[in-house]
Design goal:
This protein is α+β, with helices and mostly antiparallel strands and 367 residues long. The protein folds into 2 domains: 143 residues; 192 residues, Transferase(Phosphotransferase), domain 1. Helices cover 41% and strands 14% of the residues. The chain is built from 13 helices and 14 strands. The strands form 5 sheets. It has a 5-stranded antiparallel beta sheet. The termini are far apart. The relative contact order is 0.10.
Length: 367
């Protein structure tokens, strides 16, 4: 209602607005989010299964995890202001991206992409309503990531109206405990988690294929054209896959740019390393002497993903592979995120693991 009211007043724009507000061609189905501030629904648009996302307050804000405050609708679409030139909007967008992704030489190309996207009606100019809408979208953490990362491992963006946006339908979930109510999940014993995974999850070779995709995603986060990104909630509930068992990240909301994580952690007051946590599990050491958080994370993405893969890949793994796979995953989980550990070592561990899994499933129907 808020989005359509703003659209009818000419304040916002977007490729989805007409279908959403006037023609009512967007069908809303089930609510998929258990977080009150993030509204996520399954739906149908243009005969496609889609996911509809509209935030009520900012995404990954670790400072306000428990007491989220609803956004003020009045200031929602306040930028840019009337009279802003396209040159000023370009500079404004570049400054925003620098603050959130770091000062990277590749950012002007991303600004170009944003402006191209802002021209929703493809008339080769950006109106004030279009600029306000794309600016509001940029404030959404997941939208920023969808722009910055390749489409291969994330759901494709299909359309938007103001800061409401639609992506491809939710991929299949890899963790069947995710279907349980959040309060019941911690009560499940670990042995039952594993059993659920084996009974309800895909066959082992398909799991190996999904795991290779997840490892490729970790590589991309490390070497993205737009800087380094951290996974700050590493759970199997976020590991999705397509009908062909290609890995898809189910939720990018908990992936954060390195610049944002460092900005949050550096100089933050702490008593223990638990005080130096961004999101759910991006944790940095606490300098007990200075009582300040350090900027480097204790555990890199790869070590956290390998911990997940131990539960995901070892049950049901072929007998001749289990020992070597277990050894490589153990090595991987001990990797440290500190600067003293060279990048080359991480890359080597990752490529060994990928090669081991590929060798097992290549030249079979599963590859």
């Amino acid at each position: 209602m808020v989005i359509c009211d703003q659209y009818r007043k000419g304040i916002i724009s977007g490729s989805l607005c007409q279908d959403l507000c006037n023609l009512h061609k967007v069908e809303w189905r089930t609510c998929l989010s258990s977080v009150p501030g993030q509204q996520v629904y399954s739906g149908l648009w243009q005969s496609k299964e889609v996911t509809i996302k509209c935030g009520i307050e900012d995404g990954l804000d670790p400072k306000a995890r428990s007491d989220l405050v609803p956004r003020q609708e009045l200031v929602l679409f306040d930028k840019p202001t009337r009279g802003t030139s396209i040159k000023e909007f370009r500079e404004m967008t570049l400054s925003f991206l620098k603050a959130n992704l770091g000062d990277l030489p590749s950012l002007p190309a991303l600004v170009g992409q944003v402006l191209l996207m802002a021209d929703f009606n493809k008339d080769s100019r950006v109106s004030l309503a279009e600029a306000k809408s794309v600016w509001a979208l940029l404030q959404r953490n997941e939208f920023l990531l969808l722009l910055s990362l390749q489409e291969e491992h994330a759901s494709r963006l299909l359309g938007s109206c103001g800061d409401l946006y639609v992506t491809e339908g939710v991929p299949h979930g890899s963790w069947h405990g995710a279907a349980l109510p959040p309060l019941l999940r911690p009560l499940l014993p670990p042995a039952l988690h594993t059993a659920l995974q084996q009974w309800l999850g895909p066959a082992w070779p398909w799991r190996a294929k999904i795991a290779i995709g997840l490892l490729e995603f970790v590589e991309e986060l490390f070497h993205s054209a737009y800087g380094t990104f951290y996974m700050c909630e590493t759970t199997l509930a976020n590991v999705g896959y397509t009908a062909k068992y290609d890995f898809k990240m189910a939720d990018l909301q908990q992936v954060a740019p390195e610049a944002a994580v460092r900005r949050f952690l550096q100089g933050r007051h702490c008593e223990h390393s638990a005080d130096c946590t961004y999101g759910r599990d991006c944790r940095a050491p606490c300098d007990k002497l200075m009582r300040q958080c350090k900027g480097d994370l204790i555990q890199p993405n790869l070590a956290k993903v390998c911990e997940l893969l131990r539960d995901y890949l070892l049950p049901g793994a072929p007998a001749e592979l289990r020992e070597e796979l277990g050894r490589q995953l153990r090595t991987c989980t001990t990797l440290s995120g500190l600067a003293s550990q060279v990048e080359a070592h991480h890359a080597l561990v990752l490529s060994h693991l990928k090669a081991l899994l590929w060798k097992e499933i290549s030249n079979t129907k599963y590859s």
